[in-house]
Design brief:
Helix content: under 10%
Distance between the termini: 51 Å
Number of strands: 44
Number of helices: 6
Length: 741
């Protein structure tokens, strides 16, 4: 929808008046400890693959501590996205998750060779398939969200940004923490970890988490619960100080979750005239119901192992990182949310995906305290993805063989095996020309080779006498194709430390996302035709400041992204499949702000906000010759903001009162490049109130999420005058008991 400038500016002002999200905490530096009064804590991040203060990094970064994530009971990225400027995130099932940063993202990774626009990393290891291979969030040291292209250090598929998960590290001091929470919908969540020394040189950490709740929705035809979950996860980590110079880290993890899967409910499409083929047949107006006769499911298993070695030569550190990430997932769900009849049509997808990714990285970095600093590295990533999607379609429309009903009836199956080999060399040099003034220049050269074997088969034509396969398949095929893309992604930056507490920076960086092939196509010619990589130049200026004796932290960034060959995912309402095309160009520009205010020693106000203008500069749909030039990019609200308050107040003895309230809001956004179907703006309110022993030895609290019970959608499939809708979680609440030792 069109931006309302006064409202957008007002929202950013409100966000600035309150402050940035609960940031990753660490011990304050000596200067901070000596100052009087409350102060915003220092934040240590590894956004440039070295430990440094967030306020010294010339990149737009938001960080969250492990304690803040545990206290908020965050188990996926949706809650983090709501608190981060220019970040939106939705999940649709065990295979599909959508992440957008600064208007750049991926709706569905339906192809085995498609890549996300926002990179996800766990302990610097890339995870190529969001959903199928993404572990749950638990026992983290922190989360870092880097906005804008990060192509120099992080590599391909970070054209929009990167989300970096850093797991809790083993420590030689014995300690641990645990919590268990219970609530409505039969919710039971738990998390615990223990760490300590096994010897003078070896430390270990073991962690586990569980997450279960009953269904938020149900199938009123067969009684099945939907949108429920039952999952667990575990991780084992070792730290080995092999010598004064050599440090080894080993991490292994596994997770599993299952449930009934997503519940689609069709509502009338207010933007299109149509027959209302699904909504008119609804057996209930309750949006948290579905009416398909099929049993649905979703399940996912993820696993990973990483080994890291750091050798200190004195003036430089050599780092080796090797890792294996994998996932095996499956789901069955009704796209329409209703069987045919009484609906005029229905389509049930049964999908399976298996992913393995092997990472090898070798880099050497100079002493970060020197006037001249440098980093050089080599990188290799091999990914293999096996994916299948069976479409069982049924139509209650009138008509005989060869007509519309025939094309919506029957069963077909699409399979893909994709192998991607990514090779890269990268480096960056920083030089401090004079005290406080530093220039940096870096680049990465990437070779991206992809091979795919794809097939499509007709399992059933449907009713006797039918001659057509369900859309989109028209001709069965079996193909094998290969392509190689090469790209140089440079970055240049200038940073000025105006004072001990103020950093001003300007940067220009190029991002790159690989090409690939479509997932489900009508014929072999279309299946063998690739879509091209997308590239973007990001121009950014920013300021990071700690003001008023560090009681206030204000970080601002303004940017412009210029895209070429932007990959656009769109639902083809003729062939009834998602297709990827390359838009000629797009321009995204915006302002982001984060502020933190330490009111007293135990009272903090926080918030963040962003205003975006994301438009296609030139885009003509090559399939239907429809012009989308000037339209807004999908899944990108004109503005969003979050505000929060956090209180810890002694109440006598060794007890303290703990309270937290947060509100996140995002403006209206469109679901597709045609700017037709849209989601109205909505806000979510969360809160916690508890009492505990000072220091965290024990605590008990009440918690609530989406306290206003706001009904909002996370996905829409438009079809025949309907919007097949998927809804976000309802109001949830409960009690939580936690302990640290």
């Amino acid at each position: 929808m069109a931006a309302r400038p006064f409202t957008a500016v007002s929202c950013l002002a409100i966000a600035a008046a309150f402050a940035a999200p609960a940031a990753a905490q660490s011990a304050p530096p000596p200067a901070q400890q000596e100052a009087d009064g409350p102060q915003v804590a220092d934040v240590v991040v590894t956004a440039r693959k070295r430990e440094e203060s967030l306020q010294d990094v010339p990149i737009a970064v938001t960080a969250y501590s492990g304690d803040a994530i545990r206290d908020a009971q965050i188990v996926d990225l949706s809650a983090i996205a709501g608190r981060t400027p220019s970040f939106t995130f939705q999940k649709q099932g065990s295979i599909e998750q959508e992440a957008f940063i600064r208007g750049v993202g991926t709706v569905r990774l339906t192809s085995a060779t498609a890549d996300p626009s926002v990179g996800l990393f766990i302990n610097e290891v890339y995870i190529g398939r969001r959903g199928a291979a993404t572990p749950p969030i638990f026992d983290l040291e922190r989360v870092e969200v880097l906005r804008g292209p990060q192509g120099t250090i992080f590599g391909k598929n970070v054209v929009g940004g990167a989300v970096s998960l850093i797991t809790g590290a083993p420590r030689f001091e014995f300690g641990g923490a645990a919590y268990i929470a219970a609530g409505n919908y039969g919710t039971v969540q738990s998390e615990a970890h223990v760490t300590g020394a096994l010897s003078d040189t070896v430390a270990a950490r073991i962690a586990f988490a569980t997450d279960r709740h009953d269904g938020y929705s149900r199938n009123i035809v067969n009684g099945q619960e939907l949108e429920d979950t039952n999952g667990y996860a575990g991780r084992l980590s070792f730290l080995v100080n092999a010598s004064d110079r050599l440090t080894l880290n080993f991490v292994g993890d596994v997770s599993h979750d299952s449930g009934g899967g997503q519940a689609r409910h069709a509502v009338d499409d207010p933007t299109r005239a149509g027959v209302g083929a699904i909504a008119a047949a609804n057996l209930s107006s309750d949006p948290r119901t579905t009416f398909t006769p099929y049993e649905q499911f979703q399940r996912r298993t993820t696993y990973g192992f990483s080994a890291r070695a750091d050798y200190d030569f004195g003036g430089a550190t050599l780092t080796y990182l090797g890792a294996l990430r994998g996932g095996d997932s499956g789901q069955r769900f009704s796209q329409a949310g209703a069987g045919a009849p009484p609906s005029l049509t229905d389509s049930v997808l049964t999908q399976f995906e298996k992913y393995t990714g092997v990472t090898q990285e070798l880099r050497i970095a100079s002493d970060p305290a020197k006037q001249l600093r440098w980093l050089l590295g080599l990188y290799y990533l091999r990914e293999e993805t096996d994916r299948s999607s069976e479409n069982a379609a049924r139509s209650a429309l009138p008509g005989g063989p060869g007509g519309t009903r025939d094309s919506l009836d029957g069963v077909n199956n699409f399979t893909q095996n994709g192998v991607a080999s990514n090779y890269a060399a990268f480096g960056e040099v920083e030089y401090e020309f004079m005290p406080g003034l530093t220039a940096s220049l870096g680049a990465r050269y990437t070779i991206d080779n992809k091979v795919t074997d794809a097939s499509a088969t007709i399992i059933s034509f449907g009713m006797p006498g039918d001659i057509l396969s369900p859309a989109p398949l028209r001709t069965p095929y079996n193909i094998s194709v290969e392509n190689t893309w090469r790209e140089l992604t440079p970055r240049a930056a200038l940073e000025w430390k105006a004072s001990d507490n103020v950093l001003v920076y300007a940067s220009a960086a190029k991002g790159f996302k690989g090409g690939g092939w479509q997932a489900a196509t009508p014929d072999p010619v279309t299946a063998a035709r690739p879509f091209n990589p997308e590239t973007a130049w990001n121009y950014e200026i920013g300021i990071k400041s700690d003001l008023f004796d560090r009681r206030v932290r204000l970080n601002l960034a303004a940017f412009r992204l210029d895209f070429n060959d932007l990959q656009v995912e769109q639902l083809d309402d003729v062939l009834l499949t998602t297709v990827v095309t390359n838009a000629a160009s797009a321009k995204i520009q915006g302002i982001e702000g984060e502020v933190s205010l330490a009111v007293t020693e135990g009272f903090t106000l926080s918030g963040s906000g962003s205003i975006l203008d994301a438009k296609y500069k030139l885009y003509v749909d090559p399939r239907r010759n429809i012009t989308y030039t000037g339209n807004s990019l999908p899944r990108t609200p004109d503005y969003q903001f979050s505000v929060a308050a956090d209180l810890k107040q002694p109440i006598g003895g060794d007890l303290e009162l703990m309270a937290n309230a947060s509100y996140t809001y995002q403006d209206t956004f469109f679901y597709g490049p045609d700017n037709t179907n849209f989601e109205p703006g909505y806000g979510l309110l969360d809160a916690r109130l508890g009492i505990g022993k000072i220091g965290g030895r024990w605590a008990v609290s009440l918690w609530g999420k989406n306290l206003t019970n706001r009904l909002y959608r996370t996905s829409v499939i438009p079809f025949l005058g309907d919007e097949s809708s998927l809804y976000g979680a309802p109001r949830t609440y409960g009690v939580r008991l936690s302990s640290k030792f």
